[in-house]
Specification:
The structure is a homodimer. Chain A is mainly alpha-helical. Chain A has eleven helices and two strands; from the N terminus they run αααββαααααααα. The model of chain A has no long low-confidence stretch (mean pLDDT 87). A two-stranded antiparallel sheet of chain A has the order 1-2. Chains A and B meet through α1, α3, α4, α5 and α8 of A and α1, α3, α4, α5 and α8 of B. Chain A binds a DNA duplex through α3.
DNA sequence: CCTGTCCCTTTGTCCGACAAAGTTAGGGGC
DNA sequence: GCCCCTAACTTTGTCGGACAAAGGGACAGG
């Protein structure tokens, strides 16, 4: 028979962790608002009564977590965690877990269809203007796989943004980041890939403008199926996401 | 006319960042596999030729990113980033961006429906056994809102796991973490909430077992609509996610 | 075989220091 | 009076060394 729990586990955390937690609490509680200065390391040394090295370790934790950052003059301030930075970490996790392209494809089918549905319903004129601008730029670089892949990635970010649903925006991001490098490979390897991609985007913008949900869903499906067919010409869907994509994500994160 | 690019931009990053990047590269390249030891801080001091304080700052970065961790004896080793830890970061970001429950609801509707579709198609006997076990435990605590909310969260994690799609599993996690605390509030505030929740789970397991996609989707929708109706009895869907949920996520992260 | 002890390693923390880069204040030129 | 330039001052990034506490391992004794 197990003993009755007489003692709670005591909280034994290193000082740098406690520093990080204390600052994090103030930020998530809203007492420190995004943009507010945190103070210099020396200030924190005085406030917490620990050594500067300890403070600095705590700062690294918060920095990596995206809760604080340093401005141009390297002063600390609280900030709103950027989705893309966090998403790139998730992408990295997906790579390390060796997810397959089939999983990626299936999940993206769901997420992108949901995005377009939201966009069709709620896109603003400004959203549509951004998408139209993106389309124009895509048409200009239809012969340049790398640039076109970048435009494609941006297009789908803009569609998600137009859905006005930030949860969805965030949920699709990790998968989208893994998608992006393959798009370049596909457009390079499949001659008709570029024009088909741009045509799909044109239909999608049209669907959003006309608030035509059916058309939006249809063209999103086609767009993704095109990607899949292109992909199958150069690799197998059941292959795991290679480390090469990691490099992409890393480079993007540092930009 | 711009000059021909004679020089590459030089990489000016703090040493601790370079240390972190170097180790990260080795891990994502697979030269260091999950579980492999990284070596002691002193080893790294020797290898990188920088001060231990610098090494330690780099280690904090990697630790926070989930790429390395310390075992029971505090020795460093590479590890597979845990979805839930990263997802809690995203949840926190969503809170700080003040997303509304409407966004949460809409995104979850998409993600949970996709999960059940995958589960209906591909759940293994083991998945079903886990779900059945969860159901039994839920029935035992139907009168305890906190315990029931925890079971509910686990149930949906198990459904996502049964979908055999890790991308989906990860995509739904941030939203699900924000869902969880509200479930407790709803079950507390709405008398018939608990039994309805358990009944829905029973139907979902049944649908998975019979490979009945329609039923699975139907009951997932009902389940979420129940949540929504319950939620509207205690708050407005357009309210932003409050900081209170943050505390939940924080506590969960530290567990 | 279990246990207590000693020793070595490793981590967490601290102190003090210095160069480089950014900031601020004051002085000189117009 | 206003603007530019330079000289302090501040802050960050890094370094060297130091020490207590906790873990792990070897080893003797029950």
């Amino acid at each position: 028979m197990p003993l009755a729990p007489l003692f709670r586990p005591i909280d034994v955390a290193p000082a740098y962790q406690k520093v990080a937690d204390a600052i994090e609490r103030e930020i998530v509680n809203g007492r420190i608002k995004p943009g507010d200065p945190i103070g210099t390391e020396h200030d924190l040394v005085r406030q917490f009564g620990v050594n500067r090295s300890t403070i600095r370790e705590g700062i690294r934790v918060l920095e990596e977590g995206g809760l604080i950052s340093r401005d141009s003059s390297r002063r600390l301030h609280a900030c709103l965690p950027r989705y893309t930075k966090l998403a790139s970490r998730l992408s990295r996790a997906l790579v390390l877990h060796e997810v397959t392209f089939r999983e990626l494809y299936e999940a993206s089918m769901t997420l992108e269809v949901a995005s377009i549905e939201g966009a069709v319903e709620r896109a603003t004129d400004e959203n549509i203007a951004e998408l139209t601008d993106n389309l124009a730029r895509s048409e200009a670089v239809v012969g340049d796989p790398a640039a076109l892949a970048e435009c494609d990635a941006e297009f789908h970010v803009l569609v998600a943004k137009a859905s006005q649903n930030r949860v969805l925006q965030l949920a699709r991001e990790p998968a989208a980041q893994l998608f992006y490098p393959t798009t370049e490979m596909i457009v390079t390897g499949v001659a008709e890939g570029g024009p088909r991609l741009v045509a799909a985007h044109r239909h999608l913008i049209d669907a959003i403008r006309r608030r035509d949900r059916e058309a939006g869903v249809l063209w999103t499906r086609r767009h993704l199926q095109d990607w899949r067919r292109g992909f199958e010409k150069i690799a197998s869907l059941d292959r795991s996401v290679e480390h090469m994509y990691m490099e992409h994500a890393q480079a993007a994160r540092r930009r």
